[in-house]
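[User]
Um, tokens okay?
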Amino acid sequence: MILTPLADKLFSTGEDKLPVICIFGRRNLRLVTTAEEDFEERRLDCRCYSSDSHLERILVRDKPDVIITTGNRVFYPNLAKAPFEIRRKWLHYDTLPDLSRLGTSAYNLYVTNMLAQGKADDKPLITVFTPTYKTGEKIRRAFRSLKEQTYTNWEWIIVDDSDDGGKTFKMLCSLAGEDHRIEVFKPWEHSGVIGRVKNWACRLAKGEILVELDHDDELTDDALETVVKGFTQFREAGFLYTDCAEIYEDHTSHSYRDGWAFGYGSYTDVEYRGRMYKSGSAGNINAKTIRHIVSTPNHIRAWRRSFYESIGGHNKELHVADDYEIMVRTFLRTRMIRVPKLCYLQYIGDTAQQERNRDIHRLVRSIRVHYDRLIHERLLELGCEDFAWDEKNACSDYHIQNPAVESHATLIAGV
């Protein structure tokens, strides 16, 4: 359905970019703000609609800064169930107030929300970020899992690093047309450096919390709600991780041998949507698990945006092993929350690249050596035994036996 005939766009501004005010249930309303000086702008970009029956399309197209309704609230059922980020833009009046006051009230709400981007104690905005490279229809799997979240106050930032003449970018833009919470970006040239692309994506975020989602994976339906609850339980922590199931396209589970993650990895059989999965946990953060990629947190990985920005985000020079490197820097600067619950389904491809894996392991070793002493000092700072530390050689040693009682530095959330 074409929306244009439904709307009266008033005060058309040409190339001017003014606050967009969507008004439902009224026609031909012209709103302006009061001005203290003659040289101040007074205009607002007002767009009037008869009802909210096509709300999602209007949100995608107009991206309103403020929404105004009048009359009985029951006439606006779609607004009533919209995500919090939309409802915080909503002004409702039983009867239409003085238009000069209404314009000023709308503008004041626009400014308030603009200066408090994503900040809400009880319903924080979550930015889900996804780098893509020649992704196909599998990204719809990730999209479906977001649409089915019990927690709806999210945005999805997709940064496309494909070098396919815009084919993938065009497909992603079409996807963004289906939900106002999706934003798609493309750098001016192909990068090929995954750490840089993730860093770009997070710099575009408005949310208080950042959640990483690979293009062909999916979140369980209460994953984002679980993340919010975990961060609420431990407000001093800047990072959170959950359990994850690694699966194949036929939904059978992949698992590692007994004793993985230096003996701290484990599996739990979990039913989700009528299927059984082996939910894997690399366990707590201790002297061994933080020192190798096989045992550091897998998905979900979530940061408070303020903390993420304070450490500089993903390393923009790393084409592989960026996930491990940022885990170490995260550990060095904040407490880490573990939620022992299945929240992520990670699909395993059939075309693993042997040479790339070898490069990852080489870099992981170099990263560990670089940060080894700092990890040791951080463990001691947290009152945690560094049972992998070789005092004689002043370095860690994986071959040192695990203690009978684990000493770890993890905050475990009961959500």
The CA atoms of residues 134 and 168 lie 6 Å apart. The first helix runs from residue 55 to 62. The longest strand covers residues 336-347.
